[in-house]
Amino acid sequence: MLALSANGVLPKADYAIFADTGWEPRAVYQHLDRLQKEIAAPAGIPILRVSSGNIRRDALDPDHRFASMPLYILNQDGKQGMTRRQCTGEYKIKPIKRQVRELLGYPYPRRVPKGVFVEQWVGISTDEFHRAKDADVRYMKNRHPLIDLGWSRSDCLRYLTSLGLADTPKSSCLGCPFHGNAQWRHIRDNSPEEWQDVVEFDAAIRAGNARATASGTRLLGQAFLHRSRVPLSEAPIDHVTAAEWAARQQQIDDRTAAAEELENGVVDGCSPWACRSGDPVQSDFDLTA
């Protein structure tokens, strides 16, 4: 969306926001720096980096209130469970809302007047249209430009490829429990230092929330990063699931199509552009998040 805005396909955004959990892969930070230099700055679009802290450090600090990660639990009786996922709200949504309020001129706890809001662009494509939802506060109105354009993930990949950004990495915590085997393997095989980091973190959270443990509320079982509920260093991450095989084939198809379109010079017309639905939203800011 940032590139589409910078290149005039979408209206020029006033700001772009990156919510930093403090524990993103090194490649994500490098990519963000590149976007800042090559895409955002030339277009005059500031990228604002916001944060609620370092999720890795906070999880291991017994003196810090921690919003739990969705860890896989193996109870003493052999039953399996999962801890609540609170990290997205604390480390992503909360700092974005705080920044939005400041942009509007009504930082917490000041009340944002009725009718004052930002238009927030959320990068959900047609593949995941079911994830498109309205904001839960009146001062933010969500818009989904990729869905409005009729763009799928494949369309996004083709466009990024045309800009030399085909290697755009996924933004997520380095040690996110929602990683699939392919993502764990990628870390292990391509970034030994980061792999050691997540292996050490996995071992450190075996007893669960550090603060809860310190206060006497011990976890009745053990916590793990991998869904197999064994230490990450021993987890069967080399197993390729049926879903991964399907994703691999889709990735091959996407990249093959992108390469052919680049060679034939038809990138600009490759996507099923659609008219935007509804009337345009009037707002104080256009915002990508």
Gist of the model:
This protein has 289 residues and is an alpha/beta fold.
Describe what this molecule looks like in 3D.
With 289 residues, this protein is of the alpha/beta class. The protein has one domain. It has 10 helices and 8 strands. It has helices at residues 2-6, 26-43, 55-59, 87-104, 145-149, 153-162, 181-190, 192-204, 210-214, 242-264, and strands spanning 15-19, 47-50, 72-75, 80-82, 118-121, 140-143, 221-224, 286-288. The strands form 2 sheets. Strands 2-1-8-5-6 form a 5-stranded parallel β-sheet. Helix 6 crosses helix 10 (242-264) and helix 7 crosses helix 8 (192-204). The chain is globular and about 55 Å long. Mean pLDDT is 85; it is low at 257-289.
Describe how the helices and strands are arranged.
Layout: H1 2-6, E1 15-19, H2 26-43, E2 47-50, H3 55-59, E3 72-75, E4 80-82, H4 87-104, E5 118-121, E6 140-143, H5 145-149, H6 153-162, H7 181-190, H8 192-204, H9 210-214, E7 221-224, H10 242-264, E8 286-288
Parallel strand pairs: 1-2, 1-8, 5-6, 5-8
Antiparallel strand pairs: 3-4, 3-7
Helix pairs in contact: 6-10, 7-8
Overall strand count = 8
- What are the secondary-structure elements, in order, as H or E? HEHEHEEHEEHHHHHEHE
Determine the oligomeric state from the structure.
single chain
Question: β content, as a range?
Answer: 5-15%
Spatial arrangement of strands, main beta sheet? 2-1-8-5-6
Give the overall silhouette: globular
